[in-house]
């Protein structure tokens, strides 16, 4: 029988059956284990955590600009991320990027451009030595910030107070209603009135920051109100007046400007509460100011690295 012949052939020629254990394929794909995007004014910051050696890191910031770090760059500029194996170490990388300010037309003023916040899609890529690609994406909002500096306030009497003599003033500086500083000022008006203020209020300079954060109404960017209050003390009725600094960004930035400066000057009207005495005790003031876009880029190299 044919079947019997086959069985005899098999019994005489035993096959050696050896189990082969397959090793899992080692994938050298570099993984981005964490990505943190933050912004400060017009500067974006990307913190990238990697878990193994790689060859190339790239960030597309969403505005057409790209930051790259490869072994050639790291070696040439002696960045600590470069290792002796001709690669980029695992660790935490910090990249910084300066965005341009986005401008939109003022909702109530045709042709007037004002700064506005903007959202960007940021792509981060890493490539290892085998060409394996890892990509992650996050959104980043850029909100331009401007620092406004008022220098020391200068004041002077515009006319004689209460018929002449020695005047006793208290001056207070408030921000959003909170008193920050106070001064005593005792000018004599027994002099020839000048056309400009001569008394510099010591340490009266103050700074504020405007942040453009409202996408629907960027023209409504404002800061806390700053006000100088003046009280001239009399026996029965005090003279009172105040000077307020403008607290809208549009009062200082005109169109597509990143910086501006100027001078405010004028009169401060003091009012006497005495219904029978028409007092005239007015002041004049002058103050210089400047405003600048904040660009907090680090002074060191554009890529910072720390090992795990």
State the main characteristics:
about 300 residues, mainly beta, Immunoglobulin-like, 2 domains, six-stranded antiparallel sheet, five-stranded antiparallel sheet, 2 helices, 21 strands, elongated
Summarize the structure.
The chain folds into 2 domains: 26-143, Sandwich (Immunoglobulin-like); 147-293, Immunoglobulin-like. Helices cover 6% and strands 45% of the residues. The protein contains 2 helices and 21 strands.
Structural write-up:
The chain is mostly beta strands and 308 residues long. The protein is 6% helix and 45% strand. It is built from 2 helices and 21 strands. It has helices spanning 2-12, 71-76, and strands at 32-40, 43-50, 56-60, 66-70, 91-98, 102-105, 113-116, 118-127, 133-142, 145-150, 154-157, 169-175, 178-185, 199-200, 206-211, 226-232, 239-245, 259-268, 271-272, 283-293, 303-307. The chain is elongated. Mean pLDDT is 84; it is low at 6-28.
Task: Write the SSE topology.
Blueprint: H1 2-12, E1 32-40, E2 43-50, E3 56-60, E4 66-70, H2 71-76, E5 91-98, E6 102-105, E7 113-116, E8 118-127, E9 133-142, E10 145-150, E11 154-157, E12 169-175, E13 178-185, E14 199-200, E15 206-211, E16 226-232, E17 239-245, E18 259-268, E19 271-272, E20 283-293, E21 303-307
Antiparallel strand pairs: 1-2, 2-5, 3-4, 3-8, 5-21, 6-7, 8-9, 10-15, 10-20, 11-14, 11-20, 12-13, 12-16, 16-17, 17-19, 18-20
